[in-house]
């Protein structure tokens, strides 16, 4: 489009005249600034440019970052990444060249943004999130976004969401709430990881995560303080009893430890072996024969829930062990959270709802690929009276988007790791800012974090 065509399309001559007249009527001391602001509001913002680059995530592995430009400015977003094992989730596009970042480079995804996605979205209104996301879905044409790459699509989707909020001149969480259709906003309970085991830890603990929730706090600010203080006290205790080797950056490694405080909750994640469960898979003296059945696991969970204040168990069984998930969930002992079971996949969530296999969703936006689809799965979960846990990923960036997402979608919890390291604290610190914006109107989920039935 030529300059003259753009001027004619937006009737700029008339709009400039209107702005000058408005400045005269207002008797403004700074007519240039007044006219500039008047014109900014008078002309609808559109996407004018999209530029992508390769950056590194918290693991030192490449991911996608996007700068999206509109008349209002530049809006930056980056895509988190998982461990790549979810067969039902959207697919990150990697180059596969072992000579560059061991095959993990994302230059193909970058090229798709700079050439294909950019061409499709330039000129679109950033407030129309669903149309932007649908344009990328139509461009990709695959179920798992494997053509363009879910990492490419998601980074652009988040950047567009930020641009949409700026165009409406509202906070990001408010824009997300508008897209969702929700008006009552709450601050979620933070889920702090304090002890780690499973396949990602160098210890003998079979359970992948032990986490604590400060549900007894009255405000998020107090909850964050409680988490930080407990984290550092625990680090001191472990160091004293087990030496410095018992701790790592962000996680504490122990053979076993359970915390039980009146206003703290606990949950853990099991690493499974199909429909038989090996709790000794990390032991050097394991026989390889001592497997537990699904019934054995249910009995063990019942005993743990009886002995300790456990209120959440995430993925208590294998992702295809629907029957035991269903049986355990029916007991009503605690909230049963689906992560690998669901992969934030709409069809898997629908099946889990029909079979009552769990009653809470782990929401990882990279498993879906767009903001619009994330909103759709949250609506589905909440219609079934499920809880929603907005979650970070193994490969995170300093982008704090999921904090605003959690508030905007009314998630009762947010899982962003231990209260340390920049990519994690970016989310927790953003929630502090949001709570400050709310002022006296701030509502912390606290003891009301459980989904209503």
From TrEMBL:
It comes from the Eukaryota. Residues 184-452 form the Enolase C-terminal TIM barrel domain. SMART domains: Enolase_C, Enolase_N. Pfam families: Enolase_C (PF00113), Enolase_N (PF03952). One of its GO terms (molecular function) is magnesium ion binding. Mg(2+) binds at residues 314, 339. Pathway: Carbohydrate degradation; glycolysis; pyruvate from D-glyceraldehyde 3-phosphate: step 4/5. One of its GO terms (cellular component) is phosphopyruvate hydratase complex. InterPro entries: Enolase, Enolase-like_C_sf, Enolase-like_N, Enolase_C, Enolase_CS, Enolase_N. Keywords: Glycolysis, Lyase, Magnesium, Metal-binding. Its cofactor is Mg(2+). Residues 47-176 form the Enolase N-terminal domain. Mg(2+) is required for catalysis and for stabilizing the dimer. Belongs to the enolase family. This is phosphopyruvate hydratase. It comes from Rubroshorea leprosula.
